[in-house]
Write a structure and sequence with these properties.
This protein is of the alpha/beta class. Helices cover 40% and strands 21% of the residues.
């Protein structure tokens, strides 16, 4: 019995070729979007996936003053005994939002200290904390003249009703985190945490 023979005309070949090109281009566009443009709210950090409240690509655009190195050196070092997170009364509707940001900051700053100063137990392979400061929260009447110290840096969360811009600023052992609306405040908090965890904007496209 003779084998089956298929004949494909030129028009069909062209259609198949165009479809293949479109398919390849679609996959390339999807890959480029996911790698360079898609929001990043979960990041593999030292082998563990950690979640953030905002898109880190967007957070990376928040300005840090005077610079990332200065903020990091002021908050992540072995002399720190206690970190105080402060806030100014924003009323019944605003104050609960502080709790969310405070928990976010404390949990990820502890991870930053663990990463910077922990040692790996050779028997278990687990990281053992050497220097993990305590954290507390205080309400303040003003953000002026906060008594930050090298052993007790202060993190001031500035609610949108008190904020003039969206930024991370460090001065006199106090780091001010401000946002002009709640989404912008999320971005500023995550920008600060990127600094604390050593996450560079260039890491997001790696």
């Amino acid at each position: 019995m003779s084998g089956l023979k298929f004949k494909i005309d030129g028009r069909t070949v062209k259609i198949i070729a165009v479809a293949a090109v479109v398919l390849v281009a679609s996959y390339a566009a999807l890959y480029a979007y996911e790698r360079y443009f898609a929001p990043i709210t979960v990041l593999d950090y030292m082998g563990t996936n950690i979640e953030f409240r905002a898109d880190l690509r967007e957070a990376a655009k928040v300005p840090v003053y005077p610079g990332e190195d200065e903020v990091y050196r002021d908050t992540v070092h072995q002399l720190v005994k206690n970190v105080t997170i402060v806030f100014k009364d924003a009323g019944q509707s605003g104050n609960p939002y502080y709790i969310v940001e405070e928990l976010e900051i404390a949990s990820k700053m502890k991870l930053a200290y663990m990463t910077a100063f922990g040692t790996v137990d050779p028997q278990t392979g687990q990281t053992v904390p050497n220097t993990i400061p305590t954290f507390d929260v205080q309400q303040v009447s003003s953000y002026d003249a906060l008594p930050g110290k090298i052993q007790n840096p202060i993190i001031a969360i500035i609610h949108p009703m008190f904020a003039n811009d969206t930024a991370v600023r460090n001065s006199g052992h106090v780091t001010f985190i401000s946002g002009t609306d709640l989404h912008q405040l999320d971005l500023a908090v995550d920008r600060f945490l990127m600094v604390e965890l050593g996450i560079s904007p260039t890491d997001l496209d790696a």
